[in-house]
């Protein structure tokens, strides 16, 4: 059977590294049947993350097969053979990794010793340009992982209607074992190697922060690009997102993924039909939740959920889990973690030496925002939550997903649930290529319009004999005075996530998927990618 994500090409003279794609097969196997090498994934206890991604993609394609053919009929392809060939060609393009690059370079450590560093960057589906995806620093980084994550990014961007293809990159290091100067050397050299090969740029590939990286590394990357290939490119600041604010970043980016997780939960909680199936009321009052992972995503998710009256009763980290049925404050826990570098010892909480056990406690909503495959076939039946929101990539295996669906547990998939980050990264990129922050040209004009509108109402009342002055309410006045880029970004993010929630739910109804929102989200994404390739054509 064909491999969904096998690279179509490589960069330079070195072929793409094999391993991620163990099944090299011909196009004749592009059918609605599952490839043989994916047959055991729905029952596997610990499947490869790469195979999980492939399985989810192929599952959606299998369901969409008849819709693909119907679309090609509308396109004017008259014979069955023409339609089948076109469909197979598009499926191969939309599912296989377009290119992957592996680079090695030496750095001089602070001790004077030299070390060879290995980095990767993968471009998946290039149906939309530029491609987009994070850069992670981890000892787990390899060619297989970045290609799988690049595929995930293609479908994530498509799901939330962000016009990017998918990409991913990383450097195989433990950043905690390197000094700041060494990390800067590594980052700049990695950037330079990609720049030399014309593999990144505002219209080619726009990276972002990921595991082990932050705005600091993005600033170094951008600075390297501007001082080399980008020195004549007026849009060079848009070569990367997640930058510090004073270097072209955008307000609201840091909290974007966490806010997105909240929006996702909020949008589905308001769906009365789904809440009737899972057994919850469509209001936040008295809702309890547990978060696995108290990093950037976990903290901001907790903060926003806290504001609407939901109660956090548990937080799990890599070293300990804490539980308090009376609730855990986001800011108090963050202060404790900043002071002690751990959540261990948080006042008033019960500790779980094995933090994994905490996710099995009774709660309404579970947010796994840390590890891949934390919910598996062997423990899925222990999950008591009615809703699982995937703040991390791939925290629920396909086998576990089946078990949770049978329990009428609503799993909101990663390609939608944690897409808040890439959505706001898109806004940052737009800001950079427009060379103006959102609202800079319109805030004053909008305020004058509102004042004129209120004056017009007052004049109309005066003509009826009622001399009443119409003033702005304090809330409206404060919003106009304090209006900034962050308000626009957050409103746009909220709208984007709400719109996508409606589209995913509509897709689930169209395909009679019940609570299987993962397949619905992948169907939504896959159909959009297919239509893009269909309209654009496949050949020069």
From TrEMBL:
Pfam short name (any one): ELFV_dehydrog_N
Locations listed in the record: Mitochondrion
BP-aspect Gene Ontology terms: L-glutamate catabolic process
Catalysed reactions listed for this entry: L-glutamate + NADP(+) + H2O = 2-oxoglutarate + NH4(+) + NADPH + H(+); L-glutamate + NAD(+) + H2O = 2-oxoglutarate + NH4(+) + NADH + H(+)
InterPro entries: Aminoacid_DH-like_N_sf (IPR046346), Glu/Leu/Phe/Val/Trp_DH (IPR006095), Glu/Leu/Phe/Val/Trp_DH_C (IPR006096), Glu/Leu/Phe/Val/Trp_DH_dimer (IPR006097), Glu/Leu/Phe/Val_DH_AS (IPR033524), Glu_DH (IPR014362), NAD(P)-bd_dom_sf (IPR036291), NAD_bind_Glu_DH (IPR033922)
Annotated NAD(+) binding sites: 257, 296
GO cellular component: mitochondrion
Residues given in the record as substrate binding sites: 132, 156, 425
Primary location: mitochondrion
Name under which the protein is recorded: Glutamate dehydrogenase
Species of provenance: Cuerna arida
């Amino acid at each position: 059977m064909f491999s969904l994500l096998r690279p179509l090409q490589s960069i330079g003279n070195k072929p793409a590294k094999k391993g991620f794609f163990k099944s090299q097969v011909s196009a004749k196997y592009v059918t609605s049947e599952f490839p043989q090498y994916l047959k055991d994934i729905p029952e596997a206890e610990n499947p490869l993350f790469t195979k999980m991604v492939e399985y989810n993609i192929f599952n959606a394609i299998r369901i969409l097969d008849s819709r693909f053919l119907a679309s090609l009929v509308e396109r004017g392809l008259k014979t069955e053979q023409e339609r089948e060939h076109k469909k197979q060609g598009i499926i191969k393009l939309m599912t296989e990794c377009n290119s992957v690059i592996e680079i090695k370079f030496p750095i001089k450590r602070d001790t004077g010793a030299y070390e060879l560093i290995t980095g990767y960057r993968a471009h998946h589906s290039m149906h939309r340009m530029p491609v987009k995806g994070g850069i992670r620093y981890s000892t787990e980084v390899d060619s297989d992982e970045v290609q799988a994550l690049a595929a995930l990014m293609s479908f994530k961007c498509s799901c939330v209607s962000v016009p990017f293809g998918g990409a991913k990159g990383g450097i195989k290091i433990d950043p905690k074992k390197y000094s700041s100067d060494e990390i800067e050397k590594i980052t700049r050299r990695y950037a330079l190697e990609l720049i030399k090969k014309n593999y990144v740029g505002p219209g080619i590939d726009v990276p972002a922060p990921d595991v082990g990286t932050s705005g600091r590394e993005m600033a170094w990357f951008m600075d390297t690009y501007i001082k080399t290939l980008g020195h004549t490119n007026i849009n060079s600041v848009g070569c990367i997102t997640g930058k510090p604010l004073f270097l072209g970043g955008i307000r609201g980016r840091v909290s974007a993924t966490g806010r997105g997780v909240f929006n996702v939960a909020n949008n589905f909680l308001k769906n009365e039909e789904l809440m009737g199936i899972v057994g919850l009321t469509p209001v936040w009052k008295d809702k309890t939740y547990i978060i696995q992972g108290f990093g950037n995503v976990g903290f901001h998710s907790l903060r926003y959920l806290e504001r609407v009256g939901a109660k956090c009763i548990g937080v799990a980290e890599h070293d300990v889990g804490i539980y308090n049925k009376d609730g855990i404050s986001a800011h108090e826990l963050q202060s404790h973690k900043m002071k002690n570098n751990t959540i261990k010892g948080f006042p008033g909480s019960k500790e779980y030496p094995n933090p994994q056990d905490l996710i099995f406690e009774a709660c309404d909503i579970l947010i796994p925002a840390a590890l891949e495959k934390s919910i598996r076939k062997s423990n899925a039946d222990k999950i008591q939550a009615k809703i699982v929101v995937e703040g991390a990539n791939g925290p629920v295996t396909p086998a576990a997903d089946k078990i949770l669906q049978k329990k009428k547990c609503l799993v909101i998939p990663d390609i939608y649930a944690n897409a808040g980050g890439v959505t706001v990264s898109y806004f940052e990129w737009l800001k950079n290529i427009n060379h103006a922050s959102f609202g800079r040209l319109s805030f004053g004009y909008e305020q004058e319009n509102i004042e004129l509108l209120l004056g017009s109402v007052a004049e109309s009342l005066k003509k009826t004999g009622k001399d009443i002055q119409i003033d702005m309410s304090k809330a409206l006045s404060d919003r106009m005075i304090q209006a900034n880029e962050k308000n626009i970004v957050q409103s746009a993010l909220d709208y984007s996530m709400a719109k996508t929630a409606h589209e995913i739910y509509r897709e689930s109804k169209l395909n009679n998927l019940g609570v299987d929102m993962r397949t619905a989200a992948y169907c939504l994404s896959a159909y959009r990618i297919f239509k893009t390739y269909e309209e654009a054509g496949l050949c020069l």
